[in-house]
Amino acid sequence: MGATQGLKRTPLYGVQRAWGARFGEFAGWELPISYAGVIEEHLAVRTAVGVFDVSHMGEIVVTGDLALEVIQEVTCNDASRLADGQVQYTALMNPSGGVVDDATLYRLGKDRYMFTVNAANTQKDLEWLRLHNDGRAQIEDRSAHFCLLAIQGPLAETVLGRVVPVDLTAIRRYWFTATAFDGAEAIISRTGYTGEDGFEAYLPAAAATALWERLLEEGKPFGIRPTGLGARDTLRLEACYALYGHELNDGVTPLEANLGWIVKFQKPVFLGKEALERQRADGLKRKLVGFEMLEPGIPRAHYPVWAGGREAGQVTSGTFSPTLKKAIGLAYVPVEATAPGVEIEIGIRARRAKARIVPTPFYKRAG
After folding, report:
1. What pTM, to 2 d.p., does this model score?
2. What is each CA distance from 201 to 47, 120, 294, 306, 331, in whole angstroms?
């Protein structure tokens, strides 16, 4: 079977086909949507462990004496707080307070940092960083060098620990360690996008293929499943993790998206700071909320939302939750309609279906 016209593939494409992956298009890539099925894979991650190939994600390395200065100016979080081996969730910002992209930032060492960014935004982020660099740091797209596997679920530590020469119990949440696997340099971080405990492993293609196969072999007694992007989306939605292009974009601010905790106003300067200070002083006009359906229907992105008898917003993401066994979604609505218990309506095809604002996240793991 030939490549789908114009779509990129990760180096693990052949391995995924051998494991029965069903493929679809995402951000210009042909990627595994599911293997055994979205619900089965979702529940495996919630109760045991799943492994994802997310090698389509971008990696941008920023180095040099002034690397931190550049990063501080273009992101809203405070990278100066990072120690070597620490990871931070952050956002690249524009002057109007909108989100250019959300990213994880790794401090690889003194004056060495790595952004992991959304696949669809890699080139945009690279150009944005270079635009605001003014020759101060070295900025390099290293995406082609890395494959990225995510090992997620309550048994992730057990299974991965049988495969890699690392004491995973010593890696705290949002920290990483450098190691070697199959003769190649690797980074293993305690991070993820599912709402479960888990790890993400960065390593070259040949070593990533070996890691994939070893994980699925060693993980058999623990119920491991190869897991696609379909389950990744339902898992992140239950945990209320934002997806760029849905909950986040250039016209949405972190304050509106419930990400005020990553905005560090005490920083002297960063792109969008003045706009965010004005928004904080004036008060939000809209805010991201979670809702559950009270009537039959599955909410999907761009479905209209009615609040107080008028059309007031749009669904950003929606699905049937395999964990909660109900239809859930996220939407931006006017602040006066954001309190838990407020009833809204979702336009599903030719009718309005009742829904209710609920506290978020929809799902939070024990412990």
Report:
1. 0.96
2. 21, 20, 40, 43, 32
Q: Report the pLDDT value the prediction gives residue 3, as an integer from 0 to 100.
A: 55
The CATH superfamily holding the domain 58-144 is: Aminomethyltransferase beta-barrel domains (3.30.70.1400)
Phi, psi of 200, rounded to the nearest 5 degrees: -125, 135
Residue 160 dihedral angles phi and psi, to the nearest 5°: -65, -35
Render pLDDT for 4-52 as a digit per residue (tens, 0 to 9). 678 999 999 999 999 999 999 999 999 999 999 999 999 999 999 999 9
> Computed from CA positions of residues 100, 105, 108, 111, in that sequence, does the dihedral angle turn out positive or negative?
positive
Q: Which of 13, 50, 36 is nearest to 219 (CA)?
A: 50
> What pLDDT score was predicted for residue 1?
38
Pure H helices in 63-192: 67-74, 122-131, 156-161
285-358: CATH architecture = Beta Barrel (2.40)
Q: Write the DSSP string, 44-99.
A: HHHHS-EEEE-TTSEEEEEESTTHHHHHHHHBSS-GGGPPTTBEEEEEEE-TTS-E
